[in-house]
Amino acid sequence: MQPALRDPNPPLTRSVEDYLKAIYHLSSQGGFAATSDIAAMLDVAPPSVSGMVKRLSETGLIEHVPYRGVQLTSQGRRAALRMIRRHRVLELYLTQHLGYDWGNVHAEAERLEHAVSDDLIERMANALGQPQYDPHGDPIPTAAGDIEEAELVALGEAPIGTKLELRQVGTQDPARLHYFAEQGLTPGVLLTVSERQPFNGPTTIALVPSGDPRVVGRELAQLLWCRALGT
Amino acid sequence: MQPALRDPNPPLTRSVEDYLKAIYHLSSQGGFAATSDIAAMLDVAPPSVSGMVKRLSETGLIEHVPYRGVQLTSQGRRAALRMIRRHRVLELYLTQHLGYDWGNVHAEAERLEHAVSDDLIERMANALGQPQYDPHGDPIPTAAGDIEEAELVALGEAPIGTKLELRQVGTQDPARLHYFAEQGLTPGVLLTVSERQPFNGPTTIALVPSGDPRVVGRELAQLLWCRALGT
DNA sequence: CGTAGGTGTTAGTCTATACTAATTCGAGGA
DNA sequence: TCCTCGAATTAGTATAGACTAACACCTACG
Fold it and tell me: Is the C-beta of residue A67 closer than 7 Å to nucleic acid chain D?
């Protein structure tokens, strides 16, 4: 009997998948994800990140420029988008079919995304009618790995008077999500900015077509991402 | 800052949960589960079992008698039944709500049972109407940890002429499960034994009320567990 | 009643992932 | 231009869980 050979293409472990997702999110804007930011996002110590970064670049999932940061390779990006599809399909399924509210799905999906099969995800996606967005309005990558890149503007920066569609709610914090839901601020809602206080004050908006007003503080207004629909 | 204390009551890891389930199944008949049987069931080497057995008895989940085997403590039994509830609720949910067939649910449930929350399992159980049996007819433990102990007889041993209800199908092998399903032999079906060949030959049965006959080979007849319903 | 063969356990090693402590790098202010 | 300080990396260690090889225990058979 030969000594057992190592599987040359092992399934990704839980941790690896988490690192790839974190790097995807951190490098989606600027080019490189910093070690310390990855550490903060995953709640591990920076040396743990250095160690994992070494392993991931050896397997070709990321590109590492020492003291600068890391970027996903196309293979790493594909793996990250697969996890993001799983996460978002799970979140939507749990809210639509099992009565979860959008403030509580995140933790559950976070654990399940590592355990489900691709088959199960596709069955859930079919049961949901191949949805494009998760409960927070984030786009769901396709099974092929394509993701919509939307042109969105934060409510706190949006021009006054323009008609807007609320598209994404950029937080997973249950308390904030409950608050937004109470205020009727969920993806798909139409609104216009009627007034904005200077010096980082709150933004006042009106829902469309009802005209109901809402006042949204500066910090929260930065979490609500909108698509401009013209005047 | 104090040196970080170890969590005195850590969540069970994937492996620990698998060991407890295996020990539960192996010791449900006789008193002790043997090291080598546990190793075979989990597909690990015997010394791995010895190592885990030491850890599990230190944490009070099992009782170990060296060279004899192991038994669950009441705490270990509770943990095992919790996993079995998860597994069986998941299997039923996947078949009822996501179109899985009973031959393919096992592997999926095996992975998910370690990742789901108690909350999710209870939501699934509610969506299913607090079911008592999984797709194979195995009883689902309650959330409180009680499990039905049924008086069942294998079809190969059942008396001739008595009315029987097929209650459990004792295999997870997809090929056999497909075959049983084709033959209409699923939990809940009523039947009687019309004839049995001597010397370990096949059993001939008639479905009730249709009277359709089936011939079931010796080995398969040992997998079909029935409840006697009187004459 | 003693031993052979199998089952169980111990000893020692490996990998993945984490940690702390110590060290090195590099960019921005004096 | 040089130095300093925060960020990143290396060094060394720990833990869970697996493995192989070697040793110990039991029992059933001759």
Answer: yes
